[in-house]
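agent> fetching stored inputs for the S-adenosyl-L-homocysteine docking request
agent> found them:
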Amino acid sequence: MGLLEETKRILYAYKIYPKRKLGQNFLVDGKALDKMINYASINEDDYVLEIGAGLGFLTERLAEIAKQVIAIEIDPRLIRVLTNRLRKYKNVTILKGDVLKVDVPKFNKVVSVPPYSISSPLLFWLLRRKFECAVLAFQEEFAKRLAASAGVKDYGRLTVSVYCHAEVDLLDAIPKESFWPIPEVNSMIVHLKPRRMPFHVENEEEFFDFIREIFTQKNKKLRNAISPFLTKVGIPKEEIIKVADSIPFNYRRARDLMPEELGLAFNELIKKLQDIRKTF
Ligand code: SAH
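agent> prediction call returned; pasting tokens
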């Protein structure tokens, strides 16, 4: 039986109507699932985290190869399905709850088709943790934002933040027809490999504050886009223009600046701020 028939059969048998709010579109293309497992080079030593296990098609494939699979699922109806279907695998731990809230045991890899509604918080949740690699499916538009180059439409705060924490590779497209129920948009497989900050910034936490502020005004020239940040860090009004005019790239738009260039501008800014603060 193909995965599409299997999905319809299970949903019918358990009287489950998929909830849109929980992003319940099940990936019913076995080849795509196998590819994701290959991209993560899953082997018998791996502790694999799966977020939003759904009906368990990916879970059971992972369980055949990995040492341990930690499958998180929020919907009690699907927990029932998973518990019944995965009974024979002793190396699967099913955790009920919201991935962003439950305590997750140690893992070294992630392979998942997660709920798309939480793509962004999930990614930041993940990037705060230590792991070797993650292979995830995302909506195509979101995936493109992760790997966009400076100056293109999809480039923004998300791109810069992720770039600072991981190497991102966009792999295969998954057409929307590979899911049931069929969603509105296509998906894409993304490979993430965590890394240290690829360029030097004087203060990481403050750099991400800076990024957040300037990308809320990403179409403005940097000299204007940084003024809310300068106000926030306590620079007096009369000094703001002077500082803004003294940093590199101040006449370019935030959306056109590469992460490294933003880093340079920020470092220069921090030096100026230290000088100004000394005079207070
Ligand atoms: N991975 C499965 C299911 C994808 S649908 C597959 O490929 O077929 C997304 C799944 O995530 C659904 O089963 C949904 O119930 C679950 N989910 C939604 N929000 C969640 C959350 N906050 N934490 C954990 N699971 C969640």
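agent> quick read of the result: The longest strand covers residues 166-174.
agent> awaiting further instructions
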